[in-house]
């Protein structure tokens, strides 16, 4: 691929990963300013959009640094730009993943009926609880990933080593200059990015599907139809689709890391494509589930005046009802 081809490819990836999130962020904030309220779903949508934008841009910047200098991982000390990019990628991926987990939990508590008094009390106060959880997650990630600024080579490169052959060159594994257990820290990162959020996403999504199936069967048995059932179905589709995008992205990223660790060649295009796919698909799914954003999108592409939406016009997917 030529240099122009690389530029076009990466610009396309950035556009796919960022454009939808910018659209969602702008019109969600516009609605929040107009209504002078920030609902839980709106807050989560803002966090996901901002995190995805920074994640895609930071990944693009990292890939461009490596493209311009393939030996950058063998430089000691690491350039500050590399450390900043690693910090932003970790922090923003954490924020975005956990925002999806909190969104799944929020919808599950709001949609599913519980007989326990504890869950009934939680259902009444779920909005402030999830709001606090989202904000605390962002604060935690900003502090937890600060060791990324201390990334260094585990050992110095031998001056006699040849670095002319970039394709066959292997660099020492990065470590941390801080006095800490690097293996334990790496294990904590892996757990916080995959198993723990997934332990929230999957049970809540499955519980909503089970509830929806039981609800639909009851309606069919009584030969009745409730308008809100369609909204509940859309909620289930949204959460399951977000989980699928999340798992697909993690599989690609982990595959990339494993191949790099065993010393095999894999282009950084893979990493950029994974996060671009994640940012683009999550923004598309969130837009499709939000009536206000869909109206705005139609008004842009179909030259049709968007209807002014109040809190009444929002479906269960967009409002805290």
TrEMBL record:
<feature type="transmembrane region" description="Helical">
    <location>
        <begin position="6"/>
        <end position="29"/>
    </location>
</feature>
<feature type="transmembrane region" description="Helical">
    <location>
        <begin position="84"/>
        <end position="109"/>
    </location>
</feature>
<keyword id="KW-0812">Transmembrane</keyword>
<dbReference type="InterPro" id="IPR007960">
    <property type="entry name" value="TAS2R"/>
</dbReference>
<feature type="transmembrane region" description="Helical">
    <location>
        <begin position="41"/>
        <end position="64"/>
    </location>
</feature>
<protein>
    <recommendedName>
        <fullName>Taste receptor type 2</fullName>
    </recommendedName>
</protein>
<keyword id="KW-0297">G-protein coupled receptor</keyword>
<keyword id="KW-0472">Membrane</keyword>
<feature type="transmembrane region" description="Helical">
    <location>
        <begin position="129"/>
        <end position="149"/>
    </location>
</feature>
<comment type="similarity">
    <text>Belongs to the G-protein coupled receptor T2R family.</text>
</comment>
<feature type="transmembrane region" description="Helical">
    <location>
        <begin position="231"/>
        <end position="259"/>
    </location>
</feature>
<dbReference type="GO" id="GO:0033038">
    <property type="term" value="F:bitter taste receptor activity"/>
</dbReference>
<keyword id="KW-0675">Receptor</keyword>
<keyword id="KW-0919">Taste</keyword>
<feature type="transmembrane region" description="Helical">
    <location>
        <begin position="265"/>
        <end position="286"/>
    </location>
</feature>
<keyword id="KW-0716">Sensory transduction</keyword>
<keyword id="KW-1133">Transmembrane helix</keyword>
<dbReference type="GO" id="GO:0004930">
    <property type="term" value="F:G protein-coupled receptor activity"/>
</dbReference>
<dbReference type="Pfam" id="PF05296">
    <property type="entry name" value="TAS2R"/>
</dbReference>
<feature type="transmembrane region" description="Helical">
    <location>
        <begin position="184"/>
        <end position="210"/>
    </location>
</feature>
<keyword id="KW-0807">Transducer</keyword>
<dbReference type="GO" id="GO:0016020">
    <property type="term" value="C:membrane"/>
</dbReference>
């Amino acid at each position: 691929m030529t240099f122009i081809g690389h530029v076009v490819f990466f610009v396309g990836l950035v556009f796919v990963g960022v454009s939808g999130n910018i659209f969602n962020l702008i019109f969600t904030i516009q609605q929040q300013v107009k209504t002078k309220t920030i609902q839980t779903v709106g807050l989560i949508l803002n966090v996901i959009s901002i995190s995805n934008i920074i994640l895609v841009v930071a990944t693009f910047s990292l890939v461009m640094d490596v493209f311009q200098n393939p030996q950058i991982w063998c430089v000691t000390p690491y350039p500050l730009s590399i450390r900043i990019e690693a910090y932003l990628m970790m922090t923003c991926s954490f924020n975005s993943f956990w925002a999806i987990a909190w969104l799944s939990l929020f919808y599950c508590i709001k949609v599913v009926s519980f007989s326990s008094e504890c869950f009934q009390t939680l259902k009444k106060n779920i909005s402030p609880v999830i709001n606090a959880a989202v904000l605390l997650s962002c604060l935690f990630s900003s502090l937890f990933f600060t060791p990324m600024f201390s990334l260094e080579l585990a050992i110095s490169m031998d001056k006699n080593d040849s670095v002319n052959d970039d394709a066959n060159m292997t660099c020492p594994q990065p470590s941390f200059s801080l006095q800490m257990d690097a293996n334990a820290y790496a294990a904590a990162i892996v757990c916080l990015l995959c198993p723990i959020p997934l332990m929230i996403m999957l049970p809540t999504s499955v519980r909503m599907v089970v509830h929806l199936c039981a609800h639909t069967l009851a309606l069919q048995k009584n030969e009745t139809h409730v308008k809100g059932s369609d909204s509940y179905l859309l909620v289930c589709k949204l959460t399951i689709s977000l989980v699928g995008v999340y798992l697909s992205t993690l599989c690609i990223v982990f595959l990339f890391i494993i191949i790099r660790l065993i010393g095999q060649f894999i282009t950084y295009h893979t990493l950029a494509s994974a996060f671009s796919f994640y940012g683009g698909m999550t923004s598309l799914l969130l837009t499709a589930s939000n009536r206000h954003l869909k109206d705005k999108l139609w008004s842009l592409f179909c030259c049709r005046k968007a209807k002014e939406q109040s809190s009444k016009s929002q479906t269960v997917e967009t409002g805290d009802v």
